[in-house]
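dumping this here before i forget
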Amino acid sequence: MLHSPVNSLYDLGALRAGNLEVFIASRPEEIKASQELRYRVFFEEMGAVPTGEIAAQKRDFDQYDAICDHLLVVEHKPGGQTEVVGTYRLLRSEPMKKIGHFYSEGEFDISPIKKYNGNILEVGRSCVDKNFRNRAVMQLLWRGIGAYVAKFEIALMFGCASFHGTDPKAHAMALSYLHHYHQAPKDLCPAALPERFINMNLMPKEEVDTKQAFIALPALIKGYLRLSGYIGLGAVIDPEYNTTDVSIVVKTDLVTEKYAQRYRTNDNA
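structure:
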């Protein structure tokens, strides 16, 4: 059984919606449950290629898990049982120093972000159980992020977001739409590493149907854009996870008004 932390650095307050609750993991078994969910989604459902160790343990894990905070949405079941149905991995600058780099730096040059005057937060490894992909779970994840951003006074969020599959041409309109309409300003713009750079400018701007392109975007990227988020320059193919990755940047003053202030109280929405 999983329990939310009480009176700790990571206590985000009572954030619930019906039988669902969001909190930061504080126990090894909670982190393990989030890794098991990630394995089911990324490897069993989405076709990522596991290492032998990951396949044997049926958990998605790496060196970053030990230094990250793990945001969980859990379902409270009859009899007191709980199950992790959604998760996000969060990495602030101070814990990052234990390794010396962010996860994103394996794919993108994020030097403009690291120079930003304010606290920064890398977000990633977001997934939701296939039986819980609904508005309630996604809202709780955003509520948790909003509360976390407010608690740690985060000024800028960034990370990788993914398209399923490793053929950029299959997402030509959506990638071109992001390139033409949502590219980050130069002083904040990450760029795909030169040896991994995939051009997102696959269609002329005048040929992009913006409505259809937005519809074709993964739900997570839509969420970042609704927060006036930006996209970096170039995409990266990740064959291990069977994805085409883009870099996202979100100024959290826009998050705070829409999510953190609104959701810091328990409105049971």
